[in-house]
Every structure is written in structure tokens, then in C-alpha cells.
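In this supplementary section we document a worked example of the pipeline. Step one takes a protein sequence of length 128 as its only input; no multiple sequence alignment statistics are reported here. Step two produces a three-dimensional model, which step three serialises into C-alpha cells for compact storage. The input and output of this example are shown verbatim.
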Amino acid sequence: MTAAFVLLALSAAIGLALGTSFSWLAILVSSVALAGLSAAVLRIAGFSALSGIAIIVVCSTVNQLAYVLRVTLANGGSKGAKNSSRQSSRCEGRTNLKQLHGEFDGAPSDNSQGNIAHKRDRNENAPI
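The serialised model returned by step three reads:
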């Protein structure tokens, strides 16, 4: 049983190590090598074929999950976090556009003629 826990820890460590600077090809090669190593170690430790295969599947899964976790953390978070930051920057952009057009608080000006001259200047330059 100790052999299975050591293989799981080794799988996670290899996945985390590869996730820092290697591509998906490295995780593929390491998964194949880890499966071969696990099969040999588990056979020597006296595990049956069915339990050995189950442990190898779990080791490969842990290896790949650790790789994905490390790549995600290295890239600065998940995609959902990136989308939420994009949405907040879009909202900030809308606020900035309103401020550029003089709508700071949404209240109308005293004479309600504030932007009419500005609109007339834009319309004079428009093609007919």
C-alpha cells in the first residue's frame, strides 16, 4: 500500500514540475513513463492486475490534474477570473465614456442647452 501512496505523490510532483515550463507533449511522455514505472513497481509489490490498473489510472489522473493546476496558476488564474476582469474593465470604460460626454452624475444642467453647440459643430462637418 505504501508503494501506491509513493506513486501518487510522485505523480503529483511530476505534474506540478512539468506545469511550470513544459508543453502538453511533456505531460504525455511523462504519463507513459509513469504508467510503465507504476506497473513495474506495483507488480513487484504484489498488487493484482485489476488493482494495479486502477492505481495506474489514478496516478495518471493525478499527474495530469497537477499539470493543469500548475499551468492555470502560472498563467494567473482561471479563465473565469480573466472574464470577470474583462467585464469590470468594460464597465469602467462605460463610466469613462459618460464622464467624457459630461454626464458625471446624470443630473441635467441648469439651462438644458449644454451640449447643443457641440452637436451642431459635429453636424456641420458631416457629409451631406
